[in-house]
Amino acid sequence: MDVDAVVRAAIQLADEQGLDAASMSGVAKALGVGTMTLYTYVPSKEELLDLMVDQVLAERRLPAPGEPRPADWREQVEVYSEETRAMFQRHPWLARVSTVRPPVGPGMLAGREYLLSTLLPLDLTPRDTNTAALAITTYVDSAAGEEAESLQVERVTGQSHEAWWSERDELWETYFDVDRHPAMTTIWHANGYQDTVREAATDAYRYGLDRLLDGIEAQAKTL
Questions:
Q1: Which CATH class is domain 58-158+193-221?
Q2: Could you list the mean pLDDT of each consecutive 10-residue stretch along the chain, which spans 223 residues?
Q3: Is the pTM of this model over 0.85?
Q4: Distances (CA, A) of 92 to 11, 140, 217
């Protein structure tokens, strides 16, 4: 057994049973060793979680320096977006982990390097280049985490979001006050709520990312 084996076992437990299952005792049991033995490989649950997160971040197939990548910078951001969304869907527990103080490891650094190298050709100021990269990371990671949580709720409960909302039809038919919610009522009468929950979330994600990139591109054109 080595540290990599411990991290792999913890990730598998978290994927299958949720983050709480990846406790030191849970991982030790999965590996067939005593809990105290595990501490000789990873000193604490906090450090194990850092290793798990960075291992998962490193799964993203982001072109490294010198490797082929799309020519257009927006298409390069799309690579980051899609790889990150897929990562959260494979590991929905990741949405529960705070990124305020992320593990400074190969996975995190690879993501930062990729986005910064994507934006550098726009010739923004160094500060704005970093700020734009952070804005993209914040938006994509947050939305991808919410999307993963949404899928996880459907899997765990066995109930679709449409079915959940359907059970609450009486709220709209009996208790909804149109006078207190004129904007919502206007959208309703204009058939603005026809999409499914998943379609609406996908459209919202696409809208937000496109407008964010539009803003970055507009700033670059003014320089």
A1: mainly alpha
A2: 93 93 94 92 93 95 94 96 95 87 89 96 95 96 91 87 87 88 91 81 92 96 80
A3: yes
A4: 11, 14, 32
